[in-house]
Each structure stands twice: as C-alpha cells, then as structure tokens.
Design goal:
mainly alpha
C-alpha cells in the first residue's frame, strides 16, 4: 500500500511539474494526452477489469452502472476537471487582494479527492487465495495494470488542477501543498478499503474487491468516453487525437491480452 500511495503522490507532483515546465504548450496538447490515456483506460476496462469482476460476481453490472452515475454527480462539483476542462477565472479588483483560503476551488478539490480515493480502493486486494496480503508479499496483490491506467489518468488531471489554481491566483507554494494533498487521497481510499476487508467474511473478501473493481469501471468509463466523444472545442476528433486513441488502444491490447 505504501508503494502504491507513493506512486500516486509522485504522479500528482509530476503533473504539476509538467504544467510548470510546459505551461500553455502543455495545455494545448492536453486533448491528445487525454485521448491516449482515455483510450488506454477504456481498453483496460474491457480487457482486464470487466472480465475479472464478472468472473467473481453477478453484481458487477450493477456496480458498473452505479460508478457511471456516481462520476456524473462528482462532475457536477468538479465541472469536468477529470477530462481536461479548465474554467477561466474572471479577473477583477479582488485579484489584487491578499490571498485567502476561500480562493481555493474547494468543490473541485473535494470532488477530485473522492474520485481519486474511490478509483484507487481496489488497487491492492486479496492475494491469490483470498487472504489479505501484507508486507513484502503485498507486491503480488497489487493490480499493476490498474496502477498504470490510473497514473496515465492522474498526470493530466494534476496538470489541469495546477493550471486552475494559477488562474485563481493561488500562491505557488500553497498550490504545491494542495497538489500533494490531492496526491495522498488515494491512500485514504486504500486505507478505507483495507479496513472494510478486515471486517468482512472470507467469502466477501473476494466479492467486495470485485464489486469495487466494477464501480471503478463505471467511473473510468464515464471519463474515458467523455474524453473521446465529447463535443466542443478541444474535444472534436482530429488526426492527432485519432492517432493517440489508436496508440492508446494498441497499448492496452499489448498490456492486457
């Protein structure tokens, strides 16, 4: 768990660094980056997560639908940051005043943190025989395919979050602390997941991770399909996005077939 939490924290900071280094050039190429990540995620869902979840429980379909709807509710708060939407800040006289914590995009941060915690819950699950594995042996319980997919998803999200905080005149030092807190939200999800697993029967120790995996499928399918098919400026299909989509799907085929 510590290893995966560290990976997601570094991923969040990497996304922030990418925005600092690339600036507007990075944001201009965000649709292509998102197309690659979104297509990889869709491939991962159908080639890896969906078959595994359905093999364990018939409840998987219900949880996929639940995850899809839940992500829709979260996006009412985040306004689509998960798939690259940046909402311009209207500059006015208040922009010259001293920064206060009220200037932070609290609704978006809460939504993104819940989203990150939920999608990372099944990253570390029971071992091959249903036991919950700890310590050095936990490597075999890590779903590395899901980890890779979430890393691809979180880098552009962190870029957009950093860009939005700059737009809101959040001081750079505070922005880095906020980004680090966002990067630690997966750890909260994994801790909650482990607490639940420790309190359930051996039978549900196998079924519950599959249900959460199906929930994550619904969440990721909502994001992946929105990234690829949403209409509007920056989301219209073009040769670059089509090429990125094909490469992402090819990468998922190589990774999960």
């Amino acid at each position: 768990m510590i290893l995966t939490a560290l990976i997601f924290l570094l991923t969040s900071l990497l996304g922030g660094c990418a925005f600092v280094v690339l600036g507007d050039k990075g944001l201009a190429n965000l649709p292509v980056i998102l197309s690659f990540g979104g297509s990889f995620i869709i491939g991962m869902c159908f080639l890896h997560l969906v078959p595994e979840a359905y093999a364990v429980t018939s409840l998987a379909g219900m949880f996929v639908v639940l995850g899809f709807l839940l992500q829709g509710l979260l996006e009412l708060m985040s306004k689509g940051i998960e798939h690259g939407h940046i909402h311009a800040h209207e500059h006015g006289p208040n922009c010259n005043q001293e920064f206060t914590v009220r200037q932070l995009p609290w609704a978006a941060l809460l939504s993104l943190s819940i989203h990150a915690a939920l999608e990372c819950m099944p990253v570390v699950g029971p071992g091959h025989h249903g036991e919950h594995v700890h310590g050095p042996m936990a490597f075999e319980a890590i779903d590395w395919g899901l980890v890779v997919g979430l890393v691809m998803h979180k880098v552009p999200v962190a870029m957009v979050l950093m860009a939005m905080m700059q737009e809101q005149h959040v001081p750079r030092k505070i922005a880095w602390w906020v980004l680090a807190a966002f990067g630690l939200s997966p750890l909260a999800g994994m801790l909650v997941f482990e607490g639940i697993v420790h309190g359930i029967s051996a039978e549900w120790m196998v079924t519950f991770p599959a249900c959460m995996q199906a929930l994550v499928v619904g969440i990721l399918l909502h994001i992946g399909t929105t990234v690829l098919f949403e209409a509007g400026e920056g989301h219209a299909f073009n040769p670059k996005k089509l090429a990125a989509t094909c490469v992402g799907l090819a990468a998922s085929l190589i990774a999960f077939l």
